[in-house]
Amino acid sequence: MGDDVAIEKGQLLTTDSIIEGVHFTPSFFSYEEIGYKALASALSDIAACGGKPLWYLLNLGLRSDDSLGDVKLLIQGMEELEDKYSLKLIGGDTFHSPVLFLSITVGGESDNPVSRSGAKSSDLIYITGNIGGSKMGLYALENKIDSPIKKYHLRPGIRCEEGLYLNSNYNITSMIDISDGFLIDSNHLADESKKGLNIESAKIPICPECMDFAKQNSLDLMETVLTSGEEFELLFTSPDDIKEDFVSLIGNVSEGEGVYIDGKITPPRGYRHF
Hints:
- This protein has helices at residues 31-47, 68-85, 133-142, 151-154, 160-169, 182-193, 210-216, 221-227; strands at 5-8, 11-19, 52-62, 88-96, 101-109, 124-128, 174-177, 196-199, 234-238, 247-254, 258-261, 264-265.
- By secondary structure, it is of the alpha+beta class.
- It has a seven-stranded mixed β-sheet, with helices on both faces. The chain has a five-stranded mixed β-sheet with strand order 1-2-5-3-4, with helices on one face.
- α1 (31-47) runs parallel beside α2 and α1 (31-47) packs parallel to α5 (160-169).
């Protein structure tokens, strides 16, 4: 899945793709969940700019055994997000494909789009929501473990409303969504801002089910949390003292480079596209 957003005169444009066998396994997902997640991943890039999504295009590659009913379920999953964000499907294309393939382009707008490159020394580092559930949900699916934690991977929440709210009410200097994993995406933010990020692991908010699930399945809790992708929570920096119930303060920005977890330089680990 791609994370690049083109910004021109406050207009935002992003394209995201999900491909069977690369980004999802059909035996784990219903068609409705595939449609939901494909659109959610593209919308999350707009959220990470503090923007408002307006419309989307859908290019849909179908296998020979995909039925009209299957396509209706895919669209039904997208319509859930259309209704929530007053979003319109304005066009696209369908074609035959050896695998199920969805490529979605979302257009949006912002009077003050946020990039990844604006973090400043002495800014504070914040994150929305909690993380860790998506990777543990995938582990549950792969190992046929019946656990409610699966929902975090199948139907992740996105933060369009929160990104827009934060950008409208606070001085947000940089922002990124946690789509490839906390360590990779925090390093993206540090690299593009040319600053150091100092993060306290004890302050990183972890999904409520994660601690028990990790213990029951002998998983390294913090390693799983730090490398869990497709979370779609927002990691951002600001000089402001933000006291919102959906936001956690986890560190600060300094001169230098790289990401430091509890004072130790931590290289990127997580999902890599190439």
